[in-house]
Design brief:
Helix content: 40-55%
Bound molecules: zinc ion
Number of domains: 1
Low-confidence stretches: none
Shape: globular
Length: about 300
């Protein structure tokens, strides 16, 4: 079976090319997946997340503020961009995309979004380029609907998944794990169920060496019915924000080991692309496509 890939044209809110958030990567990533034959059956297109989904992980007042474009200045500053109608729609679609990827993963074993991983958004508001926490919303929707009983969030973005950790701090059904650059944003860090902060310039070998024990520990403690895998590519050596030094080969091996571990144990995996920051949109989009290439081998 081919890999189920979720995409929506609205993922790209069409920022100016000079904006420090590389918005056009979502469009280019989808093109690359088509060009390289990874999306031959077409994309699965999500619905924009409805309000009642968003309110499972976010305060109703914040959801309302985003949907009516009345987010306060301080929160917009924490997010890093203004929340206009296009940004609101992209955030709803990306969140709907992660819900859809999760449902497809339950049916097929694995599925990937071409967005998602907005893990800095907390219950009360967004931060760090994250408006809605798509993984937290998707996990909450699946739990509320009884589609799953236990969830593992396995977050390999270079930045700690602080919003996700905070949203689920008191929820024993969701186990949050974050492997990140210790000196990267955010400061201070939140407390996940399992955190590993790595030193600057950690390379492929040392990074991959820590995975087996973390995977085994997370699996034993979480007993997950589904894994949300944040495959952020910002641990890459060329990333503008990340402080780690992984190569493309290292990222691919990371993805293979994480996905392989859970698929070997028959746990469904929903992949989200997470962060990646480069002015070279072509190189960045190709780097994000590593997730889909690796995942396709498990579909
Ligand atoms: Zn990141």
């Amino acid at each position: 079976m081919s890999l189920a890939i979720v995409h929506h044209p609205a993922f790209d809110a069409q920022f100016d090319a000079a904006h420090r958030f590389p918005m056009s990567k979502f469009t280019r990533l989808a093109q690359i997946l088509v060009e390289d034959g990874l999306a031959d059956g077409g994309f699965f297109q999500p619905i924009p997340a409805p309000e009642h989904w968003l309110e499972l992980a976010h305060a109703p007042a914040y959801v309302e503020a985003v949907l009516t474009q009345r987010v306060d200045r301080a929160t917009e500053k924490a997010i890093g961009f203004a929340v206009d109608d296009r940004v609101a729609m992209r955030s709803r679609c990306a969140t709907g995309g992660t819900v859809l990827a999760a449902r497809l993963a339950l049916e097929r074993g694995i599925a990937c979004n071409t967005a998602g991983g907005s893990h800095h958004a907390a219950r009360e508001g967004g931060a760090g380029f994250s408006v809605f926490n798509d993984v937290a919303v998707a996990a909450s929707v699946m739990l509320a609907d009884g589609e799953v009983g236990r969830v593992l969030v396995f977050d390999c973005d270079v930045h700690q998944g602080d919003g996700t950790a905070r949203i689920f701090a008191d929820d024993r059904r969701v186990f949050t794990l974050s492997i990140h650059g210790e000196r990267n944003y955010p400061h201070p860090k939140a407390v996940s169920d399992l955190d590993l902060g790595l030193p600057d310039k950690t390379g492929d070998e040392d990074y991959l060496a820590v995975l087996p024990e973390l995977l085994a520990t997370a699996f034993d403690r979480a007993h997950p019915d589904i894994v949300f895998y944040n495959a952020g590519v910002d641990p890459h050596v060329d990333d503008r924000l990340g402080r780690l030094s992984l190569t493309d080969t290292g990222l691919a091996e990371r993805d293979r080991r994480v996905i392989g571990f859970f698929r070997d144990r028959d746990v469904p995996v929903a992949g989200v692309i997470g962060g990646g920051y480069s002015r070279d949109i072509e190189a960045l989009s190709r780097r994000h496509s590593i997730l889909h290439r690796v995942a396709a081998a498990f579909a």
